Every structure is written in C-alpha cells, then in structure tokens.
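User: Sequence in, structure out. Go.
Assistant: Echoing your sequence, followed by the structure tokens.
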Amino acid sequence: MRRMMAAGGLCLPALCVIVSRVAPLPDLPPHALAALVAVADTGSVTAAARARQLTQPTLSRQIQDLERAVGAKLLERSNQGARLTPAGETLAQGARELLAGLAGLAARVRAAGDEVGGEVRLGCIDSIGIYVLPQILPAFVQANPRVRVRVVCQSSPQLMDMLLTGELDVAVGTTEHPGLRCERLYQNPLVLVHPHAMPEAEVPSTLADLAKCPVITFANGLTVRRLLEGAFERAGLRFQPVMELANVEVIKAMVRSGLGLGVIPDGCLPHGELAARPIPECSVARVIRLMLPMRDPSAASARLIEGLRKLRRI
C-alpha cells in the first residue's frame, strides 16, 4: 500500500478517491420543453406562444435552443402551421413524462413541508367508534402517514376523566366539563327499534304504552339513559328497562332476538337490520361533542381536530 508522509514524520496510507464519470446532462430547460409540447398540442408556433403566454420570437428561441442542445431539427414549418419531426416527437414524448414528474415532485415537496408526525390519543364512545370513525379515519391516515392514531372506546364520563388526567389528546363524546373545551358537532335523536317482523299492532303508540313494554337500553349514568329517564319523569311515568347495557351493538343483538324493544341513538342502524321509528310522544336527542383539554394541541392533534370538526352539522 502506498504511504504518505504526514506532519511529525508519521507514515499514513494514501487515500484513493475514485470519482465516477457521469455523462454531462443536456441543457433542456423545462420551459423550453413545455414550449415544444405546446407546439405539438396546438400545431402552430403562434398558438403555442399564446397558450404559453409568450411572444412568438421568445418561444421560437426556446425551440432553437432545444435543437442546438440535442443536435437535431425538431420542427418543420409550413403555411399550414408547424409539426414535429420524428426527433421532435421523441423529445416531446419524453418532455411530457419529465414535466409530469416535475409537477408531481413539486406537489410532494409541498406536502412534505406540510406533513406532521407524532402520536394522537383519540377517545370516543362506542357508537362513534363503530359507525363514524371507520368512515373518516382511513382518509386521515392516508393523508397524514406520519401520524399514528391510537383509539380508545369508553363511556363519555370516562373519556372526560382521561382527558383531564392527560391520558387522551382529543375525544368525541356526549358530555361537558368546565375543565375541558367542548364543541357541539351534531345531534342524534333517540329512536325506538324493533324487529321488522313485529306486528304493527304490537308497536307502542304512546309513551305510556312504551312504559309497559320490555325496553332494552343503556345503563345508568350514560347519556341516553339520562335523557330517557328525564322524558318519562316529565310525563309522570316510571321507566324500568328489562336490560341495561353499555354497548349499542349488544342492545341491537338483544332486540333482534326478540327480548324487547330497544331505544338507541339514530345513526346506529347503517344496515337497516332493525325497524326504527320516533319514540312516541317523546322528542329527545343526544349531542355529540368534540372534547379537548385546555392545553394547546400538538401539530398532529391539531390536524386530527381539524378533520373531526368537519363532522359539525349544528
């Protein structure tokens, strides 16, 4: 191995630098290539200059510069206009691909500049997780590939506690708290559901009739239950469901099996598996809210919050 004498008399191995030889790139400015494509599309130098918002001499010079760069004639002019030579057609085809690639590169660079990353801890009630998030999260994840979304389904009171203790960054529920920022998104009227085969004569037509039926609905402390109890109390009726459950899908399964009538929020029957109608003599609705901690959100959380706000209908 060859050695070199360094300062202080030390012998060091010589560094061998290998430089790869790269063929020189032709001078093919994108604006000139766009001018050639414009001539191919319009069939006229004059029309191409108009489309490119250039003077005709300027566009002609761009074509001439290309011809010098590639060493071939690109256009043939006549009284009928201009058409590309075979060499011009070849260059124009490559120019279209190159210009499309440049446009896509610019879009990717802009997207990278706007791209955010990080983790967002999103909480929601079951019905939002079942019926709403699958409709909006895939598009969000695709548009924000560096954002990881963790989803937790709990009751709305539990979601509030998790927000207040810093375990969640954002939540969608039905309750409010003075220590949180809560925004109304939309309303879900409550509906009475029953099997499609149930005879019409057996469907209660008054709230008093419903009070005598076996009703399957949500457990104590949940928003739908509180709304129902308030409606029956205002009517002077006693409300005592035969089943008190936490999950809307379980309620629907029990109703399908014929164990009783169900009271659930509208929007929870995407496949029409049960018949639904307004609750007789009762018009109540739960409010779906965006629930946020008081602290400023991270960039990733802010991006998701922006998407969730698009659900707003009230």
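User: And one key feature?
Assistant: The domain at 30-113 is CATH 1.10.10.10 (Arc Repressor Mutant, subunit A).
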